[in-house]
Amino acid sequence: MAKLDAYGPPGNLDDLDEFGRKAWNTFISDTVDEAIQGPDPHQVLNDSPRPQFYNLTTTDTAPDLQHAPIRWTAFPRIIKITSISDLQRWQRADASRDVQDEYCEWSVSRDDSGKINKVTFTCEGPEYWEILAQTNPDKTVELYQKFISPDVRKEDLFSPSGRYQPRNKWNNSTSHGAMHLIQPNNTLGAEIELAAAATIRRVINGEELTTQQELIACSKYGAAERNSDPHIGAGVNALARQKADITLADPVGLYFDDLSTDGWETPDGSDPKAYWTYLRGDSENRVRAVYAVPADKGFAVGDITIGGRPIEFGAQIADFITIRLTGVACRFGESTAQPHTACKEFPAVELREEGFSAAAFSASGRFLGPRPTLSHRSSRVT
Amino acid sequence: MPDHTQLRRATAWTRTTAVEEVGAARDAGALDETSGHPALDDGLAVDGCGPGSTALEPGRLYRRISGRDDRAWPVSDEELTSLGDPMAVEFFRVGVFPTTVQDLLSRLPATAAASRKVYLVSEAGQVSADAIGERDMRFAITTAVRGSQVDLLVSTQAGGDPQEGFLQVAGWDPEARVFNFYARFESSWVWAGNSWDALEPDSRGKGCFDSHVNGSAVMKELRIPWINWQSERATIRLAEDDPLHHDQLFQQVIGAQQLELTVRSLITRWTAARLAAVTANGVVDHPDRLLRHLFTSTTVNLTSTDRQSSNITADSPDLTLPTGFWLNQDVLFDDLRLSTQAAPPRAPAARYLASVTRFDFRLEEKFSGFSQPGDTFFAFVVPEAAHEDNEVVRQMVRNGLVPAKFAACVLMVDFPNPVFSPARSHLMRYVPITPTNAVELCGKVAQAILDAAGTLSADSPEGRFAEHWQVPDDAWRTVFGQRVDAYLRGVTERIRTESGFDDYVRLAESRRRQFRHMKLNEFELTLPVTNIPPDAPLLAMREDATVAELT
Q: Above 0.95 for ipTM, yes or no?
């Protein structure tokens, strides 16, 4: 397979104009290149370069390519393991977008009695919307009006200086709409960095690491507490151990894989899967979905049961949603990259004054740690 | 050397390993006699669902319901007509007897192929093939043959000669609303009974019902991290040159997190069918068969932390031990909705590590001679309240057969012991065993317990139930919730101390020993072994979060 001319937008969405598409390709291509290069080896040990990761626009994909879908559950595992019961975890997951950290966020609509009538899910990365907003603000407003509310105004989404506000009032809660991902770790950049870092093989004390938890503890490419990060890392590393070259399939993105409706029952016996509708993305790469029952059916989402229990939380549906990314591997057995024999680590450094300066804080005000110069937008803070 | 395929298989239809533990199973109090699930017994040799000494004619369906049929009998035309699951309809009724899983799957309608999901499980799945040799991996396959919901489940050996490996099937009959259970023997098939047979005294706990204890689909490791299964939390280790890599079914394997959803739904389906049938005329013929799910542990699930034990170091984050070790959170919090502010107790990783050394945790498989120091792959495996039991309770509460307060009063009698509670099962004696009006059932049981409590100590199970029963209807969720929260606060404090954590390790091992005495204990590598003597007194948790000998 020849090189790609350009990376396509997530889900092959057609919102971007030509300039926007170029900007998107540049963003993905640059992010992939940075991920291949890895961090400065003087500042981070044993985490660079990543020669088994490659850029689809600059490197051919060999005929022996294999696609490797990696799937995980949308419900946030951190909430799951820190809750005492299902009821508690559903309440907590429905309470804030900031805890919905498995590359899937949702917003719940209820009727006057509190019964759920619609749950909207998104797995669109924020970067795409940043670029769309910068290159075509009117289209951005139009999409918000179409998918969130006709009441959306441009000033709701943009600052007075014209800067797009990802956490605007139509996209910052679990009850007033979810246009795209906003949880700080839910970024495409994070996905790319994680995949690249996971291509590094680790042989520690003569034994190659293979399990999810060994790998993430050693390579530190994400948060071990999530469903997604350890699983993505282990999936990619399994390909790397086959001495293949690896990248993320185009279009790079996070996608809905499926909604299972095992044990779901509707009041009229209709197929519960019929009320799951994808709203954005092509047929292979879905990025937005809604669970809602048409008004003429005479019942609402809250009347549907799962395992005999009525749907009271959007999180109950998230239990049944699978998110996916797809890796591509080729040139099996040909890579000459050598495994690292030590884990990723930061050399001891003296904490300098700038560690406490304004630069130590991200644009969103999120503390990035005492090494601001090492912090990377696409890296997860662990 | 014994035949591996008879030692580790999807279900222990023919028992071997457990036989060795029969003697130990005599341990007083180890097994719950009121659960209706027989302990290991000397009749194991005739317990299997296989043909026994019968020579089976190729290409025929036989019936052998263990405990009822002393040998395999050819299924009559009338019997065959009564079997309405996909296996009977697609194969046996039209004279087709697939001999391999590939043959079976390929003959199903195209819609079934589209819905097929394949899973992989092995108790030795995280052990290097070099260390143990034969690892006996199995596929579990689900498919929806006639509709959108799963109605056919297949369990078979992964890899090897498909003609030789075991092949077992559970099929849902939508008319009879039961599962039928089948196994292939060479070129013949044996029907081992249906869901109702799991509940009948003569066949209960025998043959395939030693695993399908209550007549449903079974997945012991039903919760994250789905111990032993390939899942989003763990990938089963496979050597680069393992021929399984080229197996078409292996290439379709997905994570067991999906199987959890399916199995839960199947348990819900059978439980609903069962309750509808036994309450249809307003009279419950066998009240004890229903209420034992509330009072006893008819079976258990296995749970653990989702941390890889060998990856835990002294400076690792705290471990969240499985909530099901402390109490039956699913029923108490999710179904009965006790008010709670609790969080799961967390233990310092250093405490766990020290205990692994102090108690000499290791994995052992006697027949292969395999031994490896350390805990199971996922740390701290323990039995927890079975979803099968909880689902019956949940549905009985939902349809009004059991008032929520009644269920809560029973569970609160000994809530720190979510499984194997002698105090709770003691109350089974007040449950009628004769036909009883459904509306009056729990009232009668409650009155019988209250009557007995008048002459017993306040700390007796009857006395505790009576005390709970006095709590006003509008207050019990708060009152019981406060007690549970206080208990969990006690655990949270004690678990951080050396003596407290070690007590909980001993308690966990005590419950594992009780599990080992169940027929459900099919594989030696399911649980770790320790240096705690096998004849050490069994233990129980108390409400003050201390551990004491089981009485």
A: no
